Amino acid sequence: MSAVAISAAEVNKLRQTTGAGMMDCKNALAEAGGDFEKAIEILRKKGQKVADKRSDREATEGYAIAKVTADGTKGIITALNCETDFVAKNGEFVALSEKIAELALANTPSDKEALGALLIDDRSINDHIVEMVGKIGEKIEISDYAVINAPYVAAYIHPGNRVVSLAGFNKAGFANQAEVGKDVTMQIAAMAPIALDENSVSTDIIEKELEIAREVLRKEGKPEDKIEMIAQGKLKKFYAESTLLNQDFIKDGKSSVKQYLQSIDKELTVTDFKRFSVS
Question: How far apart are CA 33 and CA 45, in angstroms?
Answer without folding.
Answer: 17
